[in-house]
Design a protein that fits this description.
By secondary structure, the protein is mainly α. The chain is about 65% helix and about 5% strand. A two-stranded antiparallel sheet has the order 1-2.
Length: about 170
Amino acid sequence: MGWWDDLTDRLRGREPDEPAASAPPAPTSAEIVEAVHAVERDVAGRVPAAVTARVHRIARVVEEMAPRLDRLGVGSRQAHTVVATATSYLPESVGTYLRLPRDFADRRVVAQGKTSLMLLCDQLDLLGATLGRISDAVSHEDADALVAHGQFLAEKFGTSALQLPPDGPAVAS
C-alpha cells in the first residue's frame, strides 16, 4: 500500500494500516561477547577437554572481533558470520550436543562413522577456522592501512629537519 492509498483512506475516514514492525536492533559488541561467554559457562565441566578448548578458541576470536565489526561495513557477510557464530551457530551446536546423554554422545556412532562428539568437534573446528580467516582479513586490512599511512607521511614530510646528518651531529668548537 502506497502513500496515495493512505491519503485516500484518511479522506474516507478509514484508519491507515498499522506500520510494519521494524527489525530488532543489531546486537552490541557486549551482547555478542556475552553470547559466547554464556556458551563457555554452559560447557564448563560438562564436556570433554577437546570441546572446551575449541569453544574457548572461538570465544577469544569473537572477543577480539566484536569491537572491530564496524570496520567490516554495514551488511557485511563477514560481520554477519561473526555475529551469527556467537549468537546462533555456536550455541545451537553446543546445545544440541549437551541435550544428548553423555555415553550416547561420546561413544555411539551416529553419522559418517562419527560419534556426536566427533561431529561437534568438526563443527567447532569449522567455526573456528572461519572466524580465524575473517580475523586475519580484518587485521591485514588494518596493517595495509598502517603501511599506506606511513607512505603518505614519508611523501608528505620527506626528511625531517630534526634528523641528524649521516656523519653525526655538528659540534661547535
